[in-house]
Amino acid sequence: MSQALLEFTGQTPGNLIAVLRDGVVIGSAVFSEDEPQPAPADVIRAIEAQSWDDGPARVETLGSLGSYQVASRAAGSDRLIVGVSLNLAEQIISRKNITTTVLVATALVITAVLTAWVVGYALRPLRRLAATAAEVAALPLAGDDHRIGVRVRPEDTDPDNEVGIVGHTLNRLLDNVDSALQHRVESDLRMRQFITDASHELRTPLAAIQGYAELTRQDSSALPPPPNTRWPASSRKPGGWHHWLTNCCCCPGWVKAKTCRPKSST
């Protein structure tokens, strides 16, 4: 019987055929790519340990051969058992699972990398705006000759997107601040020029006043007061003329209110 089973051909590698008689295997064959071989002893014991009937095929573990889908049919006093190895199917499923896992993991990695790149690319204009703002914040603006020459790049001022709108608005803000700084500097320069010119123009009159004060200090009693003018008493004291005339030149309310009075010298 065993020899007859071994002579079967055209079987798929891994298939199993066995014949039971009174619960004992009297012949078996396991097919492979080479010559068929009798089933190993542990496989025979696993077959003999099972209860067989003409029911539907079922999955059994047959010793060292692994999982099989087996079916049995009665053949007179004997029972024919046929099994198809599930190892190949399990290997295929395992390979497919591994392949699927690798593909999914690769897709996730590629997606993460692309997402990070897209987000980084989209945020580059915003980073440039932040760098421009930081550069402006670090400028020393306390001096007279300091201007804000930093501006957002033209490609970051596109009004068709949100970042471009922010960049354009920031440039307008910088223009306004720079214009205000320039106006302040020009006002300071005009004020300094006015003070310089006024100081230069007043130098000669004040020198004359000082000389006149020195002259009157030598003989203050001989100097008659101007007609119809009320001279302060302090002007008759030594040094009073100098202070009085200086205050009259520098006091803007003298002409209208005539409230300017020299300080009393002690």
Automatic annotation (TrEMBL):
Keywords: Kinase, Membrane, Phosphoprotein, Transferase, Transmembrane, Transmembrane helix, Two-component regulatory system. Its main location: membrane. GO terms for molecular function: phosphorelay sensor kinase activity. The chain crosses the membrane at residues 102-123. It is found in: Cell membrane. It catalyses: ATP + protein L-histidine = ADP + protein N-phospho-L-histidine. It holds the Pfam family HisKA. Residues 120-182 form the HAMP domain. Its EC number is 2.7.13.3. This is histidine kinase.
